[in-house]
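Handout, section B. The chain below has 89 residues.
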Amino acid sequence: MSVRVPTILRPYTKGVSEVSAEGSTLTEVLDSLDTSYPGIKGRVLDESGELRRFVNVYVDDDDVRFAEGLQTSIKDGGQVSIIPAVAGG
């Protein structure tokens, strides 16, 4: 499956905006990403292993916070998008 990487995390992927990963759940995909791009998982998850507060993750078009979180299933050929939250006014 493909994973869209936001600009702020692209130093981990050598500037690439979309990378491949393996797994049937979001946890497995993040583990796969961290194997290929060490350190990236630590920027998506906090110290307790949960999604960081200001990071949104979508599987296809669904926000995982409203699905099954890190256990959200991902189909073959699915798309994961990591999107930093934007604040301001």
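Note. The longest helix spans residues 26-36. Compare this with the example in section A.
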